Amino acid sequence: MNIPKSHPRYYSLMTRHLIEEGYKKGITHLQGLIAQGRGEAFDYLLGEKTMSFAKKAIKAAAAQLLLAKNPVISVNGNVAVLCPEEIGKLCRTVNAKAEANLFYRSEERIGKIVNYLKKFGVDCLGRNAKKKIAGLESKRAIVEENGIYSADVVLVMLEDGDRTEMLKKAGKKVIAIDLSPQSRTAKKADITIVDNVVRALPLMVKEAKKLKKKNKKQLTKIVKEFDNKKNLKEAVSYLRKNI
Ligand code: PTJ
Question: In this structure, how many other beta carbons lie within 10 angstroms of the beta carbon of residue 170?
Fold first, then answer.
């Protein structure tokens, strides 16, 4: 469908079509369309803009990723089609791995995501997932030994559930991008970016490129000074005001 660029909600509509295409390609799960709608409702209240609380979290997240020894970007069916290029850029900037990890896991979908990301220069893990994250009942528990299993920092996007809690129990730092500041994932993560992945990821790449010039001490200070609870409160009160 041809959406005129002058449409006031052009970018939102284009995103919707990316998810639709993702579903037709067998990458995005049918439930991913519902998750997209849920996100859109929050994004509408945010004015479809990256707010100051998100910018603060993006800076802390970029610093945390640069400090990591084995950072991994977890990719689901929505994220794969929404921002494949930015996943590649972020992996290269912070020296991270990408791993396809799905709630509605099927080896067919994992393969499709890995092949799709290859077109964008991303060597995505996920096909050799033989390890399990302890305490997690869902198929998100199935991970690669060299990827999420041994990661010290994991970036999760667009999910609500108990994975963050279990990843933290396994000793990892978790960064989440979630339009809902009240989801379980948002509340449990160490750093939560309340923003749309399509805006947050490019900003994270930009921020990481800037922060690369800083030393370990300076990066640690940025992470330590960030207060996730306070930041989430700011996001909630902003959304309340906008209703
Ligand atoms: O691809 P799979 O098999 O792993 O399935 C993944 C889905 C997306 C179906 C699954 O993670 C899911 O159902 O997610 P939820 O529980 O609906 O949670 C999605 C969360 O992400 C909600 O809090 C939404 O507000 C938020 N969200 C939706 N779209 C975006 C988003 N956050 C950031 N950017 C978005 N574009």
Answer: 18
Closest CA to 1 of 40, 102, 10, 130: 10
Atom of ligand 1 nearest to the CA of 196: 34
Chain mean position to CA 86: 11
CA of 233 to the centre of ligand 1 (A): 21
Q: Would you say residue 45 has pLDDT above 70?
A: yes
How big is the chain by its Cα radius of gyration, in Å?
17
Q: Which atom of ligand 1 is nearest to the CA of 102?
A: 4
Task: Give the strand pairing for 131-132 and 191-193.
Answer: unpaired
**Nearest atom within ligand 1 for CA of residue 198:** 36
- 141-150, pLDDT tens digit by residue? 999 999 999 9
Burial class (CB in 10 A: 0-12, 13-18, 19+), 63: buried
CA–centroid distance, 175 to ligand 1, in Å, is 15
Show the tokens assigned to 217. 């001490």
Nearest CA to 154 out of 216, 222, 54, 140 is that of: 140
Q: Quick check: pTM over 0.90?
A: yes
Query: Cα 156–162–164 angle (5° rounding)?
Result: 35
